[in-house]
Each structure stands twice: as structure tokens, then as C-alpha cells.
Design a protein that fits this description.
The chain is built from 14 helices and 2 strands; from the N terminus they run βαααααααααααααβα. It is globular, with a radius of gyration of 23 Å. The two termini are 19 Å apart.
Length: 362
């Protein structure tokens, strides 16, 4: 039986088409979650309105949204850098956790004066995340082991390693037996901006995005990253050092996630505690896909997802659990991945005349 339609690979996907498909995918995710909200006995329009007001309804709420977006920005950049070379890292969560741990160690046990404390904390966070990412990619570079499995499993190792210090030697003896470290000194806290919850980490994230955009667009190394990601065989034929580029890319990718941890622990929390990453590394995967791995777009999408997190608690006022935000994030990823298929293929009708002509020729 002849099928009325067939899939045909697109020769090119215009930017306008990708934007339209991405926007439609997000809208479909909202409709899908709206149906589920309706099935729970709630009004989806009222729920989404509450979500919007909770995220962007006032200057204070905008500040909260921006503060929650900072770790998402840096983790989103982490994933975008790795995915640009087709390194499917799932390890931003663990790398951010170790960044928190390393920065906290500097804050709690060093006596560096003045602003140099923050500089050393940022460098320690970057180094810890970068080294952890390097460890995760070594099996792929030298043994061909999938980096997806290794980075995912190392997340749990990093979180348990951090919990050992939180529940053990670094726990504050004055903290009523709670699994928190002692509070950081004032010079180990990133300054707040404009009297809001937003801290200096947002400047760090913006500068990092601009540097990455410049590297991708204007440098030889950025060109090599794109070529290796698109065609390793062509890159090898051109004499590019694939192993070295993989290691360097993962070092920078993990370093950005570690920097996210350093900013979070010094800018927002001010103590080391269990679960401090708050799934930012996993959410960053959705952000990177939505951004098409463009560093500047990562900033915008991260801000929107920061709004989802900030406004999610407001949805409880209409009787919905805060976990509805996680469901919404997962739905967005699902529909975006489905939309990605349509950017590569188009559905075209089968023509009876054309098929008949082919049969006659045979």
C-alpha cells in the first residue's frame, strides 16, 4: 500500500525555520502541561499567570529570577561548549558540586585578605570542575568509552564526596547538628548588585559568554571545535589534533560548571550544604539544546528558566505542587527534541505520477 507521505532530508535548515520550530515546541509543551494541570482540577491559565507573576511581576521578583539564572547560565555554557564538539556530557551537576566544594575549602580554611579571597575561590572552583571533567573524558579519548555513562556516574561520586565533608569534618559545630558548614567570612561573599539578590556572578557569566562567542566565531580553535564536532574524519584528514582538542574542551566545559558552583556558594548561599547544585547541571542540558549551543542565547534562555524556578513556588498558591516546574522543563526538552527532527527532515506528499513513471522505467 502506497504511503501518502514520506520523509525527505532537508538540504539546509534556515535560522527562521529553526526559531519557529523551537517556539512552537515550547508552546506545545505548555499546552501539554496545561492539559495535565487541567486534569488535576486546576485552571492552567491561572496557573501560568501565577507562574509569570511570581517570576517577573516586580523588580524584587526579577532580581530573584536573575539570581537563580546565574548557575544555569554558567552550567548552560558548560554543556554548550562540550556539545559543540559532540561530547555528550551529563556531568555538569557533579562538576558544579566539586566547584562548590573547592571554593568552600578556600573560604573556610585559608586566610587570604581582601578581594583576593574571591579570586582564589573562583580559580579553585574552575580548576576542580575542569579536572573532574577531564577525568570523565579520559576513558573516551583513550579507550572509546561513552562519555555519557561516565559523566553521569561521576555526578553521584561528586555529590557523595561533597556530602562526606558536609556531614563530617566540615560541619559547623555551632549549627545545631545540621549538615551545613560554618558561614563564610564577608570577603568570601560575592557582592550584591543594585540592592537585590543578584550578585557579581551574573557579570562573570556574561563575560564568559562573550569570550566563548568570540572563540567560536573568530578563532582557529573555535573553527577546529566546529569541524571536529561536525566531521571527525574531515578534522583528522586536515591534521587537527582531536585528542588534544577533546581534553581542552572538556577542561573549559567542566571549569565553567565549577565556576557556577563557586559563584553559587559564595554569592547566594554563603555556606556549603548538601544538594547545593539544585539540579542546575541537568537543567543546563535543556537550556543548551534550546539555545542551539549559542553562548549568547544561553544567557537569555537561562533567564527564562530562572523564571520557571522562581515562579514555580507561586504556583502552589493555586493548589499545584512545585514539582510541576520539573515536569514543564522535561516536557520542553521532549518537544524540542521532537522539533529538532523537523529541522532535519520535511514531510512531503508522495506523487502517484512520479512513482508510476519510475515503475514504467523499470
Amino acid at each position: 500500500m502506497r504511503k501518502p507521505f514520506r520523509l525527505q532530508k532537508r538540504d539546509d535548515s534556515p535560522v527562521s525555520l529553526r526559531i519557529v520550530i523551537c517556539v512552537c515546541s515550547v508552546l506545545l509543551a505548555l499546552v501539554f502541561c496545561g492539559i495535565l494541570i487541567l486534569a488535576m482540577g486546576n485552571n492552567p491559565v491561572a496557573a501560568y499567570a501565577r507562574l509569570f507573576r511570581g517570576a517577573f511581576g516586580s523588580g524584587t521578583r526579577l532580581g530573584t529570577t536573575a539570581a537563580k539564572a546565574i548557575p544555569l547560565m554558567l552550567c548552560g555554557l558548560c554543556v554548550a561548549v562540550a556539545f559543540k564538539m559532540r561530547l555528550m556530557t551529563i556531568g555538569a551537576e557533579g562538576q558544579m558540586t566539586l566547584g562548590c566544594l573547592a571554593a568552600s575549602g578556600v573560604a573556610l580554611f585559608s586566610h587570604i585578605p581582601g578581594p583576593m579571597m574571591l579570586v582564589v575561590m573562583m580559580l579553585a572552583g574552575f580548576a576542580a570542575g575542569g579536572v573532574w571533567a577531564l577525568i570523565s573524558v579520559l576513558p573516551k579519548v583513550y579507550l572509546g568509552v561513552s562519555e555519557v555513562i561516565v559523566t553521569l556516574l561521576l555526578n553521584y561520586v561528586a555529590m557523595l564526596f561533597s556530602d562526606y565533608f558536609v556531614y563530617g569534618p566540615w560541619r559547623d559545630p555551632k549549627g545545631d547538628n545540621m549538615p551545613f558548614s560554618a558561614p563564610f567570612a564577608d570577603n568570601a561573599r560575592l557582592p550584591k548588585l543594585f540592592g537585590s539578590e543578584v550578585h557579581l556572578g551574573i557579570v562573570i557569566a556574561i563575560v564568559a559568554a562573550l569570550i566563548l562567542w568570540f572563540i567560536f566565531k573568530k578563532t582557529v580553535w573555535g573553527y577546529e571545535i566546529r569541524v571536529i564536532g561536525e566531521s571527525p574524519k574531515a578534522a583528522r584528514y586536515a591534521g587537527m589534533n582531536i585528542r588534544r582538542n577533546m581534553l581542552l574542551t572538556m577542561l573549559i566545559s567542566g571549569g565553567l560548571a565549577g565556576l557556577a558552583g563557586a559563584c553559587e556558594v559564595s554569592g547566594t548561599v554563603g555556606i556549603l550544604k548538601s544538594g547545593i547544585s539544585n539540579d542546575s547541571g541537568y537543567t543546563a542540558i535543556i537550556i543548551a539544546y534550546l539555545s542551539k549551543f549559542n553562548p549568547l542565547v544561553v544567557l537569555l534562555v537561562s533567564f527564562l528558566f530562572g523564571g520557571l524556578q522562581a515562579g514555580g513556588y507561586s504556583m502552589q498558591l493555586v493548589g499545584l505542587p512545585v514539582q510541576i516546574v520539573t515536569m514543564l522543563q522535561g516536557s520542553i526538552l521532549l518537544f524540542v527534541l521532537g522539533g529538532e527532527f523537523l529541522t532535519r527532515y520535511k514531510i512531503v506528499p508522495n506523487r502517484a505520477g512520479k512513482e508510476a513513471a519510475v515503475h514504467v522505467g523499470e
